[in-house]
Specification:
CATH architecture of chain A: Up-down Bundle
Oligomer: homohexamer
Number of helices of chain A: 10
Strand content of chain A: 5-15%
Helix content of chain A: 40-55%
Largest sheet of chain A: 3 strands, mixed
């Protein structure tokens, strides 16, 4: 069973809208080696897992899989910010036939030749479940052979490829919004790569100096370096509400990347940051409410809500103030 | 940010394996109107939501979306049980070249003409991200126009169609494992149908006697009736850990289905049941560990795990005993 | 601009439901060489046609394309009859949990192992836009190079392949409902094959004895023979309401199949037969109206309709009696 | 059975070629909510319709479905004009290796970075059955649950989404060729939206002020306003040759959009405009006839055609002069 | 540049036709982990290879890739034999309307409920480029990151998964035609698995006892054991005509599977067996020649062919007698 | 069985990188009428061929099919050169965060708006198995009806369409690297077109002046003219190592293109040119070896390779010097 808290797993830096960068990031969301894929692959591997004796391996996969849902949420939100509005366009469209001032363009005018036109035409300046050339995500991506060694080997390759692609995307754009999320995912992919490599180590493999793959020198990317200095690539969260995960039996000891760090799995989840709701876009008719409907919406928003008894999670008041992790 | 607890959202009844029923259930998992679709559609609608004033609507969608992940987990696990082994086959395959006793068949022998051969050939007797004719799930299914009214209208139609298909599946099979999950999802789909219909009511629509769609008389299905008697079709959970959801501002008052019930949203989550890990399948080489690897696995399983500090959720000991909801 | 008349282009023989035959016929509807493909291919070729001097060729393609829409209607209706109910099942399902008498099965029970389960699960015992293995029809099938010779060559090959597949389907089933439509389409495909072969003859090709392709000896199929005896394979209709088609400048003279017939294009359309609306299917919740909704429907049906002035087409009264063609 | 007349359902304004606008329009042709989809969806819903008592609903769907074929023809032709030649390029390519004069570019040179390269490479400067990012149209788009209420609800959402996307396309381009067709389809989509909303009204739903969806203020688009002033959004044609359609029993009375108009269904079809055949494109080898083949084509064109007896439709001479509707 | 010799890489055992087994084998041909995939993946990895210093690795991949084309030829031919005719059907169809004798069925009659109907309907009892549930092979399967370590890791996983699936297919059928080819491919996949594992060993990895993956005990399959006894799993051919391959620098020394064998790469190619052309199938109209066309074919076959100068390869006469390898 | 020699079938001219041209060429590699398609189609037609008496036709198809593998290799290598680096960029990326000098851009920076971003993001500046709009190659492209006449007719149309598209690509770009390969393939496609047209001539068809299709006047393209002057469009190779091909019984006599040449099939293969391995791309982490791994690679490269006995093909020493054809 899954739960949610209205916080993003990592903060997103502010910068100009950038539809071309958004499109590149789509590979990290809906591409063959993106977050939707890891999320679904680990979910299926967890459901179909065989071998009660191998529970720590199942828990490792399941915990990473839960984290990937939050990654989908993070990169999706990042993309939606990158396509929200238009570069160098001040102000807000107030009429579908607006003209932009000098130095910019109305968002829908740039849709014809930048990034993916569906961001503006099918979505309302929001993320899509597709890759960077517009192919919809496909269930055929999911790998789940049932053979534990093969599944671990595939997952290792999958995380490494995801990180490889994100390093390439990092080089493609200087947009800070894009880079802040990409950098975070580069480091977390490396943590997952370490997790699967370590799991294979427990089955006898010695990696010698092969890891990390790729040898990206990603520590030269400043946003990445900052996170590596926090050892975020050697840390794994459980995201498990009742403390039943045994992933820590695997994710411990010397990192298979031989970088001098030790793997640590002693936190439930990162603290995250509050998520916010994006503003309206009149040119997209999103949410598209006229004054009459707006009034009805307001009536609902003003209502006094029934009290929910919060069982999993801290008291509501405390949660609003600061949902803490160790 | 998302969290997980090692419990299934609803119990699954015991019965014989049934590959044909499993295949029909695949439509409810990976079909165009199945749980993977609702899960992804509501996740995208939540990430891309516009209009801070409409937060209760976002929270309603987000909460249902979180529930759908647990539905994917439930129906996926159900399918994996339905294809685990073979009908009327006693005992366990101990050799890839085993022959079954009278009255049954080795699982891989039935793979050629029952259900979906991929359940046995690509997966190891487990669920797949495909529909009932083997089409992989596609990102093109996700609808997220950004226009609030259209998104709500689509979601209403989506839940109703999901329920329609599940009612048809119910009639297709008498297998109790299949029917217990199908019945639960029929009732929960109706709750979601009520949620979106109610949201449209707050925008002025009067449904008169149109709902529920379809008029299934599903209350004649005994497993369904039992759940309806508990008003499970008029209840919505938040699955929100910090009590920030405002979905209850919409999901309240008289049910749009005009069945005399009131909509109630005062619980965080159902109690659920513990999830278990399936046994090995030697004929599938899953997990496929020989004695040497088995010994290494055991060493990992025996390890003493590092303590995780549980922030969201009750104390670990209590959780293991009985993760309660109101 | 297109028009419709509520008549089927050819009659459909009565026989038992037959889901396996229905599934085979899906290839003729939604397969790569089926009627949806020819319909769409000729529609695109007509819209994108270049060369005003070549108008007779455009008109030939456009006229056949219009006929193909009626073929989609014919084969779709045939499939819906073949999956309407269940073989050897007397009576009508009156309750979703009905049990059939001896000698038959409730339709939804046979869905698990006969034909395409989507006929019962996604559709309500009706035709689908897919091929015989469940692949959805794809726009990538449409060929329209813009080069007239290539387009004609492709169309010739397309019609011949369609006929080849239909001859194979004919051999696969003895069901009379299936065979009556298949036989009609075999003969019309041959007429279209003759049309494109003749068009290439006007460009200099001599076919010698190569046509028809395949050499099916389909005249041995009794239903086919009957139609060949009427020279239906050497006749082309215009389906053109205002008599502007110049297709007859090509479709005339000796048949390229060298069978002693002459090509004739002097009729607007065949007479056809009235189309009827299928009955309800309670087990599919189709149309799924309860007594309250049924009453509302009846009120609408009873209404006195506004008079429509019929411009294209004969007087309404006459049309109802007998919409004649020469 | 279907018929055709060589007229477009609406006129297309003249303007420069514009490959980027053409590409955006592809969404309206081959996209998930485009005209190929509505055409096919309504064709399947009509063929598979259940419930003789509900004939007016079937006729409503069937009539709109017939109109959609003409919409495919209209938007397809519009796209083919938008990619016919190259902006600011005077004259005509006379040699595949031509160079353009100043101020323009040879069409095939712009293909590499504008719109969809397939318009020039796979097609010969013509429309394609794909969406605006090049995905081929898919049969999986077609929705036909068999449940009347769900099918109507889906159709309402479908037409509204189609209109939403077209409003966005309108804002994306100022090209008059593109806008004239988009404006017409915006208004006709609204008529269809009204049709399905009204059908649901006959089943008891009250829409209050929810319609039209989206609230586009599209009346601010001048080309749209002109058509709204003619009440084209409150009019439905039957396209039925024999006057058997009962759609008018539903499409009558006050518009569900509450705009003060009444729904009227008293015409068979709009008058339309004559369609013309596009010129040659030597750089595409389309139609690609050398002098020898050209001579053979001419011989065919000069032939005296056999007389066709026109049964459905007015006398040929009159039709050529002016195929009228009321 | 590629060359061909009219020999199959391995012999195919004789047995009854078996459409269900044929369908399972399609996974090994056109499935995501089948021979078309390995063939294409290694072809792309070879073309796009970077790093002149790593030539032995390129040559290893290229050599295996060349072998995979012969595997496609082998498994494709095996499938075409398994669907050629019908089980327990004596004699030959001589008329499309033939009836079978007792104890069997005409091939086209079994098409409706066994295996993949396309084998009989789209193909003429021949292999198809699809997987075991009918999904067409897709270019999206090809993995070629450009990072050498990742490509090797993926290839190792790919070969292991291919072998896993073939072991499962082996268990699914007792048909000797199917098993002879499956057994050969199991052993060759293991050789390729060894090749990529060894390549990773040269980069520092120690596999300990992890290989082979899966631990199939496939040596219990008699047809497999026979080939393992010949050390065919520890042998690699170059298929390189000019002796330029440096793959032997990697494929040598102790097998990474730790089975006591040494890897050997000292042969160009296996000897193979002559390939033969299948007989006609009148019921499929394949090749579909009537007496008139047959006579023309015969005239061509009787012609005296021009002499081809054979540069690569032994003298023609010798080759016909016995194209030997060491 | 297939063999390989490390030579390209034709030389590739040097020019600047050109991602837009590379993208256009993808149609010729992975498009519906590209080289992957011809290669696979002829491979399947050869495996599934029926009719021993028609061996010359099988051999013709099989020989062309073998050539197509070399065409895939040629066009794939051409594309990888066109995306290797960046136009007007001097020097070599030495750090993932490099900045380019004036007049150029770092390759990954141009990826966002030129050609197909996957060339840089999923591949490492290399060819992909997709078409020019990014659709992955699909097995559904393969046509193999089993009817000899239809298969030949399709192949004729296929080669002609391939040539038509390549003529259009030629006009789209002036890049010499692109044009040298395109020109070669135009001429070879014409040879294959002649082959299938001639095969149909042996079955009785007279083409008169219809061929070649299209009438491209491609002889005006200088690179094409040079190859036509060598009669390369009237020559066919066998690529058959043991001289068993009987294709020459068909490919002989007057060309069906009526251009005064005679068809000649007296050579085994063209001479080709040596293939080379591309350099590293640090910004792509391809091959991505750090100094430690590089050292291990070098150790492997330095090894003394085991001697391979070359059976098919000339002595190794001679081959290295000059692998000749007549």
């Amino acid at each position: 069973m899954y739960f949610h808290v209205q916080r993003l797993i990592h903060d997103i830096a502010q910068d100009e809208p950038d539809p071309a960068a958004a499109n590149a990031l789509q590979e990290g969301l809906g591409g063959q080696f993106g977050e939707m894929r890891t999320m679904m692959q680990y979910l299926f591997q967890s459901m179909n897992f065989r071998g009660p004796a191998a529970k720590p391996y199942r828990d490792l996969i399941q915990g990473i899989g839960t984290e990937e849902i939050s990654h989908v949420e993070l990169i999706g939100t990042t993309i939606s910010r990158l396509v929200d509005g238009s570069p160098r366009y001040q102000g807000k469209v107030t009429d579908p036939l607006d003209k932009a001032g000098s130095g910019g363009a109305i968002p829908l005018e740039i849709a014809l030749d930048q990034g993916n036109i569906h961001h503006y035409l099918v979505g309302a300046q929001g993320a899509l479940p597709v890759d960077a050339v517009g192919n919809p995500w496909s269930g055929s991506y999911v790998y789940n052979s049932g053979n534990l060694v093969l599944d671990l080997l595939y997952n290792l390759m999958l995380e490494s490829t995801g990180r490889l692609q994100k390093c390439r995307i990092y080089e493609m754009t200087a947009n800070k919004t894009a880079r802040s999320t990409i950098a975070y995912l580069i480091v977390r992919d490396q943590a997952h790569e370490n997790a699967y490599a370590k799991a294979l180590e427990t089955l006898g493999v010695h990696w010698n100096t092969l890891l990390p793959i790729p040898k990206t020198n990603a520590e030269k990317f400043p946003e990445v370096k900052k996170l590596l200095d926090l050892n975020l690539h050697s840390k794994q969260y459980t995201f498990d509400l009742a403390g039943q995960s045994e992933a820590g039996k695997i994710f411990q000891g010397m990192s298979p990347s031989k970088d001098g760090t030790n793997l640590v799995a002693d936190e439930q989840a990162p603290e995250g940051v509050p998520s916010v709701i994006a503003g309206e876009r009149m040119e997209e008719f999103a949410p598209g409410l006229d004054p009459a409907l707006m009034e009805l919406i307001q009536a609902t928003a003003d209502m006094e809500m029934a009290e929910v008894d919060v069982s999993y999670g801290p008291a509501k008041a405390a949660a609003k103030a600061a949902p803490k992790t160790k």
